[in-house]
Design brief:
The chain has 120 residues and is an alpha+beta fold. It contains 5 helices and 4 strands, in the order αβαβαββαα. It has a 4-stranded mixed beta sheet with strand order 2-1-3-4.
């Protein structure tokens, strides 16, 4: 969908996300999904604001329905947030850039966001 984000499939997902240290955000999308196009624009803006160490990638659910099934994705767009290869958060639908940035910054924090969560 977007040349700026790596496209993941069954062959690349585990190495790119699950075996990767740090924070990864995976956007499950579909060509026919209008809100997915909106989410891509939000993620493109967000990519300029979060640390470069954060991986933002996409999975085309039309091409790779097995990955969507594997992670319980039932609606689009769905974002999966991983920290050190473990699923940390799931968000379905469109979120504002600021909300997504806060979620990513919390995961990037050395304590995994525990301090930020206690301040809320």
């Amino acid at each position: 969908m977007s040349a700026s984000f790596p496209a993941l499939d069954e062959a690349t997902f585990d190495a790119a996300v699950l075996a990767r240290p740090g924070v990864s955000v995976v956007d499950f999308w579909s060509v026919s999904c209008v809100p997915c196009r909106q989410m891509t624009r939000v993620l493109q803006e967000l990519a300029r604001e979060v640390p470069a160490s954060v991986l933002i990638a996409q999975v085309d659910t039309d091409a790779y329905p097995g990955l969507a099934e594997r992670f319980g994705v039932r609606a689009l767009p769905t974002l999966l947030f991983f920290k050190d290869g473990r699923l940390a958060e799931t968000r379905t639908g469109i979120d504002r850039r600021q909300v997504l940035k806060k979620a990513i910054v919390a995961l990037v924090a050395p304590d995994g966001g525990a301090a930020a969560a206690s301040e809320s």
